[in-house]
């Protein structure tokens, strides 16, 4: 059955090579998913070699885990590993690596100007039909595409963390996204074995808009003096993951960015927690340490008036 709002699937174009801009947490999970499900060459790019190498190493390590669990055979593991490569973006190497890609997805820092620049650079090297997808969690697809020569090939392709496990994929149609792009996005989402839904190009789409309301709510409770572990313990058995655990999984900076975007769009309805702002300013990546207890530095930041 065709998902609601999806155009005729006969318009979909084949995806034979995937480019991923960014090699961080989300990008490397995307590389793993694309290579496993599409079995086509996937190139991860980033601005420095260390990040690129780390991204590729993550994919290889995850494939090794699947092999060890007996989920895939040795031949498939080797084939998938060989399909993943890394390149520097911005330099000639990165440009060459993308020139024959027909589906490029960006998963770089959540900042409109950065994402626009990425797409402007990619557009110089790929064919006019190459899809430019964005994994943005909150920003406008229409605005991201506005200055491009071919804005009709830009589409939102929003995954959830952990990518391998979460079934949903929000597909976002910008004002100028055409039917061939949308049909390709839906066909690709299906090939990736995700549940695809068409969502409006509005701040934070569906899930993060609702999540932003919830995270603002628990953020306010902490700002009013309730300790984080107490708030989290209130959710035991209620949610798959307590709120501040979830915030640590997605990253405090992403969570803050989401609430800021929503607050800008709907100032009366969304709360931006000053404690969360302090945690992000201190560049903390998680609230909890590896042993599962609250990071003492985070605790001190939360208590600060
Ligand atoms: N990467 C890959 N696989 C993972 C993983 C990860 N980070 N974390 C867990 N898994 C896999 C495990 O390998 C396991 O797979 P298996 O059964 O095939 O071996 C399976 O998930 C279940 O894991 P566990 O038994 O260890 O743990 P749980 O049962 O507690 O499930 C969870 C873990 C699926 C992460 C669950 O806690 C959960 O659903 N949490 C909520 C996640 C969520 O809501 N994500 C959305 C965040 S919002 C977002 O991403 C939007 C963005 O824009 C910010």
Automatic annotation (TrEMBL):
What is the name listed in the Swiss-Prot or TrEMBL entry for this protein? 3-hydroxyacyl-CoA dehydrogenase/enoyl-CoA hydratase/carnithine racemase
Q: Which organism is it from?
A: Nocardioides panaciterrulae
Q: Which residues of the full protein are shown?
A: 329 to 633 of 707
Q: Which residue range or ranges hold the 3-hydroxyacyl-CoA dehydrogenase NAD binding domain? A: 17-201
Which family does this protein fall into?
A: Belongs to the 3-hydroxyacyl-CoA dehydrogenase family. In the central section; belongs to the 3-hydroxyacyl-CoA dehydrogenase family.
The 3-hydroxyacyl-CoA dehydrogenase C-terminal domain covers which part of the protein?
205-284
